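Note to self: keep these together.
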Amino acid sequence: MSIHRDNLTEEMLQLYSADATVAFKQLKVSFVGETGDDLGGLTKDLFTSLWASIMKKFFIGEAAMVPYIPMHEHMQKRRYYEAIGRILSHTVALLQYVPARLSRCTLLCLSLDSSHITSELLLSDLRYDILPYYVAHLSTVLMPALCNNFCN
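Structure:
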């Protein structure tokens, strides 16, 4: 498999969206314009770079990442979550690696289904992983505006 490093997220999402069986195959990775044989290092490099990019484009959070799509991008991007689930299972199969920053609820939804998520687990994830992100984000965005409006 030859991947363009500067377009790897889009290429991999298209691949895993179009072909569900790719998640069950061994990969031999090469990057276009680069030399090297894949003895495992290029595959690891691919998935490490891919997860860093996926986290930026499809997830939010600090201690733990949860899926997020802005409403104006919802129809365009939501179809990728099934491919992301395939990429996750393939990452685990090939590298015995799970992106550490995914929340527990996210991992369960991507790998099994939402019926395995208890209300206690969801509340725990919300309390310790998700709400602190929103509070920190809101304080950096809203507090200056509130202070500015209060002083005027």
